[in-house]
Specification:
It contains 8 helices and no strands. By secondary structure, the protein is mainly alpha-helical.
């Protein structure tokens, strides 16, 4: 369906084609963003922002390139912005509490720290090369190409390690596919 959509897409995105793109990609983006951010509501907000950016940039979009990849990149950037903003808020909140000597336990922060600790423990169980590749790609945000050049292995090898690492991590953390039903 999307191949035909790409071939018939005009130079400037019209409302009908935009609606087709929305209907085609919404569920896929939702599954992936919920998996990345852990919140259905926040993932829906990010998807709305992605489609808003697509609409605003409809005159500049090159439809000969992968629209799905373009939307995933926009979403990834928005998620990273969200995490950066969230981290700044938490630092400010912690500084404020220290300055005001408030004895307060932040349950959300403890939950997040626990999740990160669990993730780190599972990642550390990966075989050394797979662990290195996963950390470079997912924690240091390096592309498959950059990692393949750095480690002198093919990009398909990098992809294979990432797929197997994700599958292992999901099984160790007990993800049952409630929100995320995509490939590992």
């Amino acid at each position: 369906m999307m191949e035909a959509l790409q071939l018939n897409t005009p130079k400037i995105l019209d409302r009908k084609t935009f609606n087709e793109i929305y209907d085609t990609y919404y569920q896929d983006l939702l599954r992936k963003f919920v998996f990345l951010i852990g919140s259905q509501e926040r993932a829906e907000d990010i998807i709305q922002e992605v489609f808003l950016k697509i609409w605003k940039q409809r005159r500049q979009i090159d439809f000969s390139l992968s629209l799905r990849s373009y939307m995933m990149r926009i979403g990834h950037n928005l998620i990273m912005d969200y995490y950066r903003h969230h981290r700044v808020e938490k630092k400010f909140e912690a500084r404020y509490k220290r300055q005001n000597n408030i004895n307060y336990i932040d349950v959300d922060e403890l939950f997040h720290e626990d999740q990160m600790s669990r993730l780190e423990n599972v990642v550390n169980k990966l075989p050394p090369k797979r662990r290195l590749i996963f950390k470079l790609c997912k924690f240091e945000d390096k592309s498959y190409k950059e990692v393949s050049e750095l480690l002198n292995v093919s990009q398909s090898t990098i992809c294979d390690h990432i797929v197997k690492a994700k599958r292992f991590i999901k099984s160790e953390l007990g993800f049952k596919g409630h929100y995320y039903r995509g490939r590992a």
